[in-house]
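Q: Here's a chain of 694 amino acids. Please give me its 3D structure as tokens.
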Amino acid sequence: MWYKDLVTSEKPAWYSDLASYAALPRLSGLILSPDGSRLVTQVATPSQDGSKYVNALWRIDPSGQTPAQPLTRTPESSHSPTFAHNGDLLFLSARPSGLKDAPDKAPTALWRLPADGGEARLVAWRRGGIDQVVAAASCEATVVKAGVLVSAANLDDDDRLAKARAEGHVNAILQTAYPVRFWDQDLGPAKPQLLAVDAAQTLAPPRQLTPGAGSALWDCQLDITPGGDSVVTTWDVPMSGGSLRVKLVRLDYASGQAKTLIDDPVADLSHPAISPDGKTVAYIRWEHTTPTDAKGTGLWLTDIDGGEPRQIAASFDRVIDAKPVWLPDGSGLLLVADDQGRAPVFHVALASGTVTKLTSDVAAFSDVNLSPDGATVYALRSSYTAPPAPVRFDLTQALAADGNGIATTALPGPAEVLELPGRLEELRFERDGVDLRAFLVLPAAASPAKPAPLLLWIHGGPVSSWNAWSWRWNPWLMAAVGYAVLLPDPALSTGYGLDFINRGQDDWGGAPFEDLMTATDVAIARPDIDATRTAAMGGSFGGYMANWVAGHTDRFKAIVTHASLWHLPSFYGTTDMGFYWEREFTPEGTERSNPSPSVARIATPMLVIHGDKDYRVPISEGLRLWWDLLSRSALAAGDDGTSPHRFLYFPDENHWVLTPAHAQIWYGTVLAFLARHVLDLPEEQAPAWPELLG
């Protein structure tokens, strides 16, 4: 592949070719056994035929003394692990069940791997699959989420109807409420229910906990008390005009009786976490955004039996979007939140509400676990210099660091440490008195004598931050062929407080655009950057901003826009969560922030990329952008029907591009496009387009 010819390194490495990159093992998730003796993570690698990524479960030694070891080796994915109270490992997999009446294509089922070794055994399955599992810490009480057809009288009847639909080749869905799609899934006809499972038995009949849930559990988050008597789950509540809010509901595990814990009419509630004594629920409250105020998140507590909720650490204005972790004695919580281009682990003391930063690494943490004695914290650590990997640190030492945090210690994991084809620097600057920052990835050869061309890469979200390794948006593949990559956090980004987010509310083309241009000015002022060879690119909100940049400046020589918003008024009605966008913008803000009216001013070649299974930013946005570029831009198609613009279309991909082969096509096409316009290579000298495109 021509990519190899552009790589500046003289020795083989993971970045030497796109196939090597696609084959790298990718860690996600981390859980600790009840006795603290084992960590388990899942590792994704390409399937044997290369058509998808397949997860295997791996064991990691918390003490760091022994190498990581694989626990599952089947061709089918094993994922979503959780520990049973006795240390057995529960997980989901679509491996063949061996059941007599099972469909030819095995559904995702619940399996159990004994703590002392041996083969995994089938615990529960549904013809429509299982997609979530939680287990009690002190008993066998287990809850799974599975779809059940609305017309089914019971679970046996659901199995009959699901089999009849499959054999009759029926996939039609009659919808009665909103939403009807989510990210890349059509919702229905089966609607999710929570089922109680006796995980100690083999194929014990599941029991319905939520037979009347309707559409309330599409994307639910749940927890179970240590003693298994209660389940707390998020619950979607329909509102007028097709909108939704999310409340918290407590379910009695024995009877399924439901009781609303918290129903806040102006907020969504998420990430319930039940205390070790089973008496208190911690959760995240995010008040509904308005066009002028992002509102932000808060950490709240409520008694599991009900009562007045209370906020903890009200002055902490970072966005929290992960489940809090209780200390074993119930005195505090650990949480992760974006902060200044990092995502540290924080400690929250319940008595005082004091928030203390625990980690000093320039990194983003996730999947936080605590040892049974509360002394050691385990997590996955990720940064722009390393993909996710397991680490640990001492909680007492971290608390004693007075908010400065401490460095974490790496544990032997399933993946090797990667050598990088360059270096990472952090830029800090200001615009109109506001402090701004960005990461800058530089190729190894970049110097004043050999300045590198620059790619401005704009993050999605928009309420997010460039702070963690990304397999999907990896700047090191660009650095390997000589590009510098600028990763700024403009207005609307997380980690800088609510005022920073609100600078961009209802005006996406205002402060966010100006921040990005300022960051670009800072970068190209460096002697190791070639100011005459620059490009901009981004996906989702980053794609929106790429479109806005294209219509409001001609400073870049090429622009790549992936899964991008183009015509905001029509986008609201075709995206999967239209009510969210109705809250996000005023009518005036929609008009002000709409990039499509500026198409006639677009004089920069654009590469448009979109997947047909993208329901968050539907393909209609990409198709309309493509038509507008060819018919109305300054580089519209000529008499021969051609234009310097290009459209890369993936019929089977979603908001991202997830399969190994298509990821290689994506990077190959982007780099070929940039070579023609940023590097000014004539067609006969430019890298060929990926040959598998035809």
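Q: Can you summarize the key feature?
A: DSSP finds 13 helices and 38 strands in the chain.
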